[in-house]
Amino acid sequence: MQTPINEEKLNELMGKLVGDMGAAMSAALVVLGDRLGLYRALSKGPATSAEVAKRAGTAERYTREWLAAQAAAGYVQYNAGTGCYSVTPEQAFAFAQEGSPAFVPGAFQVISSMFRDEPKIAEAFRSGKGVGWHEHDAALFHGTERFFRPGYNANLVNNWIPALGGVREKLERGASVADVGCGHGASTIIMAIAFPNSSFIGFDYHEPSIARARAAAKEAGVADRARFEVAPAQSYPGGNYDFVTFFDCLHDMGDPVGAARHVRKTLAADGTWMIVEPMAQDRLEQNLNPVGRIFYSASTMICTPASLSQEVGLGLGAQAGEARLKEVITSAGFSRFRRATETPFNMVLEARP
Questions:
Q1: 144, 150, 154, 160: CA torsion to nearest 10
Q2: Where are the domains of the chain?
Q3: CA angle 288, 107, 225 (to 5 degrees)
Q4: Phi, psi of 77 (to 5 degrees)
Q5: Strand runs labelled E in the chain
Q6: What is the bridge-based pairing of β-strands 84-86 and 77-79?
Q7: Residue 280: CB partners within 8 Å, gap ≥ 6?
């Protein structure tokens, strides 16, 4: 016998779904507006759809419809009296100012890659096999860098490194640093700019990302002290590093214990390993919140498939939690472990021999 439908609960669910459908459809429009420069055009001042189109070099009719959708989403403002659209300082900060701590279009690029890669992930669900990072749509690589870079700009030098015992002072004097899983090199380059007396080398197994990182280092004027090499986390070259960093990547690895052992092997006796991971509590029920929703979704489509595609395939997932990460790290021979600091989206862990 079918359980009777509670209309009040059904209406509540449908209301939530309507909101989610609007958000999902708006994601494509955010990517579009970012690509076409529409947010930047609008940030120059209130304008009609024709004026926004002229600034951006787009067709007015398309621009008008995009602006209406953005106003309905609450992403831009509309003045019915003047027929003009505008953005508040906060909206401009989030959508138009690349590099601001709140810049979000990169995250929407990541979301767009998830839709493009859905057929691959569906097949992985059936087979149990993984989907490597390199097998994803390129929007993932570019979006990830653009999404994480503002947070690194805001926190890495001013908050995260100072929270580690004695690391800032070492970097100021001159230290040897390995940034593992560096992607497009945003974290490596930020540190190289901030600490000119130190030398940095970024490692990533994804060759196109390393090529982009090298170009970015040249653009930033730090190619002389920020080098990049193609290498996996379990066997990157060099040794006696004063400082090793993993930014939002340990949980993606098929063999994070092996990676941790290699860090222990290549770290100086008095060195420090900084592991930046997504914010998560240790129990599932503690992560059933908006941040957990984002990270579990990304983990389903990106992080867990990446881990399962590799040797061992531990599949930690993006919401592993501090206790599970501590098990991984201390099992590799690190005797000191602590959470140094945190943000709403990240926990910063410190490990020492």
A1: 10
A2: 7-97, 106-352
A3: 115
A4: -105, 150
A5: 77-79, 84-86, 176-180, 199-204, 226-230, 241-247, 267-278, 336-342, 346-352
A6: antiparallel
A7: 287, 292, 295, 318, 319, 320, 321, 322, 347
Task: Give the pLDDT confidence of 234-284 residue by residue, as tens digits.
Answer: 999 999 999 999 999 999 999 999 999 999 999 999 999 999 999 999 999
Backbone angles phi, psi at 336, to 5 degrees: -120, 130
Topology (CATH level 3) of domain 7-97: Arc Repressor Mutant, subunit A (1.10.10)
Judged by DSSP in three states, 205 sits in coil
DSSP states of 122-183: HHHHHH-----GGGS-HHHHHHHHHHHHHHHHHHIIIIIGGGSTTHHHHHHH--EEEEET-T
Of 314, 303, 98, give the one whose Cα is nearest residue 181: 303
How many residues belong to the chain? 353
Taking a C-beta distance cutoff of 8 angstroms, is the pair 58, 40 a contact? no
Superfamily of domain 106-352: Vaccinia Virus protein VP39 (3.40.50.150)
**273 CB-contact burial (10 Å; exposed 0-12 / middle 13-18 / buried 19+):** buried
State the Cα–Cα distance between residues 39 and 43, nearest whole angstrom.
Answer: 6
| Secondary structure (3-state) at 223 | coil
Contact 195, 188 (CB under 8 A): no
Given this model, what pLDDT does residue 1 score? 67
pLDDT of residue 3: 86
Q: Write out pLDDT tens, residues 72-100.
A: 999 999 999 999 999 999 999 999 999 89
Q: Which residues contact 40 (CB under 8 A, 6 or more apart)?
A: 56, 96
Taking only Cα atoms into account, the Rg of the chain, rounded to an integer number of angstroms, comes to: 22
Give pLDDT < 70 ranges for the chain: 1
- Contacts (Cβ under 8 Å, ≥6 apart) of 155: 343, 346
